[in-house]
Amino acid sequence: MKPFRRLAAAIVAVTVVATACSTGSETTAATTNKGVDVTDWSGVLKAAHGQTVRWYAYGGSDAINRFIDETYGPPLKAKYDITLERVPVADTVDAVNQVLTEKKANKNPGAVDLIWINGENFKSLKSADMLYSGWAQKLPNAKLVNWDDPAVNKDFGVPVNGAESPWASAQFQLVYDTTRTKQAELPRSYARLKDWACAHPGRFTYIAPGPGAFQGTRFVKQALFELSGGAKQWTTFNQGRWDSQQDKLWTYFNELKPCLWRNGETYPKDESELHKLFANNEVDFTITQAIVGPGSLIDEGLVPKTAKAFTFDANSIGDYSYVAIPSNAPDHAAALVLANLILDPGRQALQIDPAKGFGLGYAIDTSRVTDTAERSALDLAATKRGPAAAPIDELNRSRVPDAAVEYQDLVESGWRTHVLGT
Amino acid sequence: MTPSAGIVGPAWVRRVARSPIAAVAPAIVVVGLGAGYALVEGLGASFGIGAPVAGVPIGLDAYRRVIASPTFWESGLFSMWVAVASTVLAVAGGTLISWWWISRPGRIRRIDMWLVHLSVSIPHVAWAVAFVAVLSQSGFAARVAAVVGLIDRPDQFPVLIADRAGLGIIATIATKELAFVALVTLPLATRRARDAVTAAATLGASHSQRLRFVFIPTIAPALLPAAAAVFAFALGSYEAPALLGGQRPRTLSIVALEHFRASDLTRRADAFAVSTLIGAVIVLMVALLWFVGRRVSRPTPRAAR
Q1: Which chain A residue is nearest to residue B136, measuring alpha carbons?
Q2: Confidence (pLDDT) at B11
Q3: Which end of chain A is least crowded, N or C, by CB within 10 Å?
């Protein structure tokens, strides 16, 4: 063992020397701020004039890509002389890793101005100290956001601290095909879901929880809420509570397992795989986070035209997604202008329109909109979510906040060990 | 040989310039700069150097964590199985194609070459997507089988995608790489090889004897490096396992990327530790093949220089 240790130590030493030259100082990239003062909005607009905002956003949906280009590109150019450059990423974590690599290479300015982000990716960049913070509540349109709501001021339980500004709200829902399943027969709780699945063996599955598959993790967390008697207790982290409750969770999923598609031996790894199984009539449910339900999925031809969203009676996790600005963003000012434009009531009213292809809910609290024309446009848009959407009272009644971020890894690794691994 | 035309200078310069090393030097420099830099950075990151968050100790912590994890060993065995099986199938398939080429009268047809080149030039990810489209339970093969009545419903089609044995992954890599193997053996599957095979046939050797004792030894010098390349590729490949693999077991490449994408930045070194270990296994395996290759295809003693 000794010679091995010595060899290992030698390799470590040589690599330390070799990388020391290339790594350089690691903290300087995080501190710069270009001197843009958010409270001086006319100064921000002036600085943003002629800039380009490189917006890194999940690019897997053509409908969302088109929505971004058409909804934000033209007004940015016309009103502020800002060019919108949407950079599609397969997964938001790719944008996160881009920024982290820039930090390591001490690259400032970097390549990213704005990221569509939430949850664990926000936590990553925040813990790496690579986010410009303290700005979100100072945007002119921030007064339209209910920053007192813990669902807004905390993201996965992590305090936002003005390091990201909300864009849209979403809520976990299931999707069924009205030609295959009658509305009256829909399971509306995890207990009933298990009965349904075992009465229809092989016709249900869910996304495997894990990094990059938050929908799967969310599906398991909601079961935890139901089995433990409510969501609220999970908004703060308590190891003891987890230790005492987790067995119930694994028992539930192991009882469900033999009734699942392929007997629970394998699971779809993301939303698009689950949509495909649903569209191919291999399973009877898929999921969506969109407030308009599967409307834009139908338009893209990913699910049947007769698909419709529904929620369980309780414990359906609702949350917000945000935009954040890396601390080494080349065009800070333009990014601020875009983050503010996103909260504009006119733009918000567009994002809920199923025909526009985005279909997520409002980030603003419509009761704070004082302009009566804007207010009624928002209220009208909310009533026109299309035939595929779940009823609004159903969504409101069942909505609960997500669990504290610490549970994320516990749920994911626990599921792998106790459910997948058995 | 006369001194090479165009190369002037002292004797050692001419010697170096004529050596095979000089011929591959430009490639080595270009690849070496890119890959070498990545290797050093990756190795450094596996020791916790340059971690994205403060407070990550420098040392072998990531290796300890990775090696202590049962998932790592399960994934390691699975990766090894996928790589070995793909390599064996690709080498066998490539050899048979090559054998088929020289066993036929006439020259190698242009269409054959075109097919092989086409197969080599298709990106791996496209090949893997094609396999998913064809082999999944909702895929083309399942539907055709259901329509012609081989099975009653498409979901009775055998599970070849996301299966526990990794059959879909192996099939994808092996079919893609057998064309590569055939192409690499081509320079040795020449008329001389055909003459030797014909001579063996004249002397009464059976088909299998001709293949085993004449043809395979002839192309062995190309076969072993090809096998090493296929193995190295298969062990580290990401596309096929990502598209055709299931949730369990998963290959090491998938595990490494998952570590790299996890939100806990203090554990990012684990991703690089897994990658480094994949690289170490590849180096060991290539060394082994090189050693075997020297023993198997040791050339006849050279005539005195």
Answers
A1: A277
A2: 82
A3: N
